[in-house]
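Repro:
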Amino acid sequence: MVFLVLGWGVQHLIHSHNTLRLQHIPVYDTFPTKEDNSPDLNIAAIPDNVSSIPAFYSRALERGLRLQRTLSKHLETSRLSDLLNLADTTTSARIHSLKTPYSSTAYTTRPTTDSLTLTNSEWEIHTKLISGCHLCPDITNCPCGYHLTQPNADKYHFFNCPLLRKSLLDDAHNLFVNELTNILNTIGFYAIKETQPNDTTKHRPDITLFTASKNLIEFTFRNPCASYLANHKHPLRTLANAEQQKRTKYTPLARFEKAKLTPTSADRFGTLSTSLLAFIDHIAKTAPCPRALTPPPPTSNKPSSNALPSPSPNPTHSSPNSPANAS
């Protein structure tokens, strides 16, 4: 039995070391220390001999290390990196955008208004968008002449199409600005959506917000799959560069009006810029009526004990609460 345990221990060490080295993960026989001399538990460390395994794991558990979790994290990160190195620009941009913080908020946040609720068809398109599927498989040809059925066709051609890309970005931008203006007014602020001239030249930021001071809010929407974006692997840098352009454009106006300029941005896959997240956090903390958008508690369909039983629904029609009608 002892020899069996020792044999398993040797195999465990050899396999672990070889696996990590194949994935280019550094392996240590002790925990490297941080600047404050505390052990760095995020580094993969494996004992260098079988006899030290019990003591090693005992110390690891005392320090809160979960060896399997740490190794899995390194292996998955390494495999994802290898996969992205072989991916095309569009796939790389999509996956890197979906990895950013809060890009999946739509799946975990209850909508507070009808306008913020996705319909079934909108949810289907959104799911295809983030999954890398064709958004409209029934459409085979684009008005610009691009054939969507050709080998290796661009799944997101509509966003890059010279005839459609500007209108699609403008629609998404205007939808966001309209909703943000409504939300700011609903929670007690005074916000004005700026009316832009018809000559396609913007002279002012999108929203003028009055709090304790005057604020100019500018929003920029970006398509991370655009060929001219060199930082498709770094979506937050792309957004930061876009905001810097807006800051350069509108800073003279903000100084003239003695207002605070806040450029914000997002991309098509749900990446929110650092400044947009900071702005959301700020208005959430300072809103005069922060609970105005709080979703109501879910209502129970269970009848009370004093209520009369309701007639059964017509089996030929789906109930309002059925999955078929859920949005």
